[in-house]
Amino acid sequence: FQISTKEPLNPIKQDVKKGKLRFVANVFPHKGYIWNYGAIPQTWEDPGHKDENTGCCGDNDPIDVCEIGSKVCSRGEVIKVKVLGTLALIDEGETDWKVIAINVEDPEADSYNDIEDVRRMKPGYLEATVDWFRRYKVPDGKPENQFAFNGDFKGKDFALDVIKGTHEHWKALITKKTDGGGISCTNLTVSDSPFCCSQDCAKATVEAAPPCKAASPIPPEVDKWFYYQKN
């Protein structure tokens, strides 16, 4: 499920690739996602901006977050997190930052203040995260993903700077100082945005959406394991 950036009010919907609902593959030894996977609102990885650290432009999405707490969150749940670090994924030639964070309400949150705390408290977790992102698209016939900094994680301060930069890009987008292409910037809360709409307008948009139908059955291949030799 992803934030649907091209639809009004950006609903959370299941991603579709080549006309089919998208599911994440189980690439041994990882079953599905190994963290709570989400995004930071009011951020945008600008596809017209070449990142000085990676040499690649942004992926045209909000910045992604891997939340490593003990609770499995509900889909669409909004939580407050403590930023710990970041990984610079290069996904099909685009910069795709993965921020590592922990829920501030997690029982162990006070023990985590930077990326090295993750390495100390959860041995092997960061290495598994790199492995997951490197190989998760291989079952779709795509090559392994690459990383900036040789796949090394950057710490909290670096991650916060990345988040601040993508927030500035979002502000330029939402105030029409940058052309977002097909992105829908309709919103209810940014009063100085030319895309700001009224509650009545937003309500009408939601009510105009087609009603939900019965869920389709989950394809059997969703539970399939994929094995292959690491490069």
From TrEMBL:
What are the GO BP annotations of this UniProt entry?
A: phosphate-containing compound metabolic process
Query: What superkingdom heads the lineage?
Result: Eukaryota
Give the main EC class: hydrolase
Could you say which cofactors this protein requires?
Mg(2+)
**Entry's Gene Ontology cellular component terms:** cytoplasm
Q: Which keywords annotate this record?
A: Acetylation, Hydrolase, Magnesium, Metal-binding
InterPro entries according to UniProt = Pyrophosphatase, Pyrophosphatase_sf
EC number of this enzyme: 3.6.1.1
Q: Name one Pfam family in it.
A: Pyrophosphatase
Give one GO term, molecular function aspect.
inorganic diphosphate phosphatase activity
Ligase as a keyword of this entry, yes or no, is: no
Q: Which PANTHER family match?
A: INORGANIC PYROPHOSPHATASE
Name the protein family: Belongs to the PPase family.
Q: How does it assemble?
A: Homodimer.
Q: Please give the name of this protein.
A: inorganic diphosphatase
Give the organism the record lists.
Zosterops hypoxanthus
Lineage at the top is: Eukaryota, Metazoa, Chordata, Craniata, Vertebrata
